[in-house]
Specification:
The structure holds 2 protein chains of 2 kinds.
Chain A (H helix, E strand, L loop, with lengths): L3 E4 L2 E5 L4 E7 L7 E6 L6 E6 L5 E4 L2 E6 L4 E6 L8 E7 L10 E2 L3 E6 L1
Chain B lengths: L3 E4 L2 E4 L5 E7 L5 E8 L3 E10 L2 E4 L6 E3 L9 E3 L8 E8 L9 E2 L3 E5 L1
Parallel strand pairs in B: 2-11
Antiparallel strand pairs in B: 1-3, 3-8, 4-5, 4-9, 5-6, 7-8, 9-10, 9-11
Classes of the chains: A mainly beta, B mainly beta.
């Protein structure tokens, strides 16, 4: 059972456009929601993360929007650039005995055309 | 700091052969994990460990064994390789605090089973 559902599977955006990737979860015990970025041939790396006590977090061109009541969160990439072309994974984790374990979405392959 | 290191980078096995994928981290992280990445399936957790001497199964543990005798090392053993185990394998570690922590991924091992 997929704990975190991610969409779309792939996304093509023109340079300068806005890329939006959505994720949804069911387990209300999740309390940490990171996004990872992966370039071809590399391991994933943390891009940005949010905790549910805030509804938005912005770092440069990357913004996470979080809707606790809807159990959804999304990544917005403003002014998308060809260098942003990568696979993006949302994830969630919770405190407790499994602290540290991340539940990943299936990923979104983003292509930004110049 | 070398971060998370994995060896080998590439490996070809014949069906039925066994091997160990090595993973080491020099950041004194409590949490370590192994993922496999297949097209369209995202990152699937194989096994994880919340500290030396403690391991647990993830989503897809069948055909794999792990042990954690030290904080630094977390090897993944394939007992009898099958073509279905052809994949890219990533090891990751994190400090496991209550704040929500970045997982640091290794560069991956690309395994082909013929």
């Amino acid at each position: 059972q997929q704990q975190v559902k991610q969409s779309p599977q792939s996304l093509i955006v023109q340079k300068g456009g806005i890329s939006i990737i959505n994720c949804a979860y069911e387990n209300t015990a999740f309390d940490y929601f990171p996004w990872y970025q992966q370039f071809p041939g590399k391991g994933p790396a943390l891009l940005i993360a949010i905790r549910p006590d805030v509804s938005e977090k912005k770092e440069g061109r990357f913004t996470i929007s979080f809707n606790k009541s809807a159990k959804q969160f999304s990544l917005h990439i403003m002014d998308s650039q060809p260098g942003d072309s990568a696979t993006y994974f949302c994830a969630a984790s919770m405190a407790g005995s499994t602290l540290g374990r991340l539940y990943f979405g299936r990923g979104t392959q983003l292509t930004v055309w110049p | 700091n070398a971060g998370v290191t994995q060896t080998p980078k590439f490996q070809v096995l014949k069906t039925g052969q066994s091997m160990t994928l090595q993973c080491a981290q020099d950041m004194n992280h409590e949490y370590m994990s192994w993922y496999r990445q297949d097209p369209g399936m995202g990152l699937r957790l194989i096994h994880y460990s919340v500290g030396a001497g403690i391991t647990d199964q993830g989503e897809v543990p069948n055909g794999y064994n792990v042990s954690r005798s030290t904080t630094e090392d977390f090897p993944l053993r394939l007992l009898s390789a099958a073509p279905s185990q052809t994949s890219v394998y990533f090891c990751a570690s994190s400090p496991r605090t209550t704040r929500g922590d970045e997982q640091y991924f290794g560069p991956g091992t690309r395994l082909t089973v013929t």
